[in-house]
Amino acid sequence: MSDIFNNELFEAFASASDNVFIYVCDMKSDISRWSKAAVDYFGLAGEYLENAANIWGQHVHPDDLKVYTEDIQGVFSGAKKYHDCQYRARNASGRYVWVECKGSVIRDEEGNPIIFAGLMTRIDGQSKYDSLTGLLTTQELHYFDFASQFGIALLIGMDGFRKIISNYGYNIGDEILIKFSREISDLCKPGWKVLRFSGDEFLVLAFSSNLQEVTDFYREICQQTDIMKLEGGRKVGISISAGGVLFPQDADVREVLINKLEHSLEYAKNNQRGSMVFFSEEIAKRHERGLILREDLKQCIKNDFKGFELFFQPFIDPNTGTIAGCESLLRWKGERIKDSYPMEFIKVLEDYGDIHEVGFWVMEQAIKQQVEWRDTYGELQFSFNVSYQQFLDDTFEEKVISCAKKYGVNPNYIIIELTESCQVEAPRELAVMFNNLRKQGFKIALDDFGTAYASMEMLKWLPVDYIKVEHSFIRELAQPGHDVDYVIVDSLLNMCRRLGYNSIIEGVENGKVADIVGELNATLLQGYHYSHPICREDFEKLLDEDRKRL
Question: Is the pLDDT of residue 453 over 70?
Answer without folding.
Answer: no
